[in-house]
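Q: I'm writing a short explainer about Phage integrase family protein for a general audience and would like to include a description of its predicted shape. Could you first generate the structure from this sequence?
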Amino acid sequence: MKSVRLRWSERHCQDHVQHADEGGKEGKRGDGLTLAGPLASLRPLKLSELTGERIAEWLKSQTAERPTMAALSYRLLRAFIRWASDTPAYLGVIPADAYKSRSVKDAVPRVGAKEGDCLQREQLVVWFAAVRKIQNPVISTYLQALLLTGARREEMAALRWDDVDFKWRSLSIADKVEESGRVIPLPPYLASLLLELKRINDTPPNVRLLARMEARGEKWEPSQWVFARKTAADGKIAEPRIAHTKALGVAGLPHVSLHGLRRSFGTLAEWCEVPVGSVAQIQGHKPSAIAEKHYRRRPLDLLRQWHTRIEAWMLERAGVDFEPQQAQQGLRAVNQ
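A: Of course. Here's the predicted structure. Afterward I'll give you a sentence or two in plain language.
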């Protein structure tokens, strides 16, 4: 499994564990117990019993109540079967038609984008006003970063300070599509928000707290994570959805998921007449056309021109008073 973890992203591995979980554990939110994942019902089966007919029946049983999770579970199961066929110890054990048969393909739910899961330009004013009022600066900045970069939620959550280049104004994102990751521009307003987070992160606690830590044999040091959370097991932000849902309620807006913020970036960028390929490269989408795949890889300074335009347009529509010079002054202070 170590070789698989090297090839699969952290999020993909987590999805396998979550969707195969048998449930019955205490939930992180609320008083109830967790539900079994869609793949849990397949765990008692032998590998040789994973026939196309059995998988088709499983898909039909899961699609009725949770079609989106069923579709993802199918893709996870397909990845597992492909891994098994490439592993000598399991080669030929799973029937060849396990996921390729017509009955299985017909049973896979067709799930499209959530209708309306996207901010409209006239909603930017109230969204920014509510999110900027969130008392936790880490969550407030994280949510704004999702909208201003179009990054995937797990990509942004995994951002380290080593990935932030204030001098050349760039962010190194651990891309789930490109193995080497991708480098995107760091636009001025977002840079100013990250500078404030860095100031907070690099400020040691007061003398009393330091003394308590020393008494416990602990040593204070700044977090490696941009969006840090002290109480989290891995030290980084874990569940910002609650704060975002509250902010949406305050703003009087319909529900928008965290992935909806990523979708909003791509949609709102069209108002700025930014080339579709530039938006896709910033977001980390796979190139669609042959020319995009083989020839057009835009340099960072060209992407920065378009990205800065998108950010400025959003801030203007949101009524956020910001001058790029504010970020430049802070950047010079950090770079010195």
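A: For your explainer, you could say: The chain has two domains: 2-107, 121-335.
Q: Perfect, that's easy to follow.
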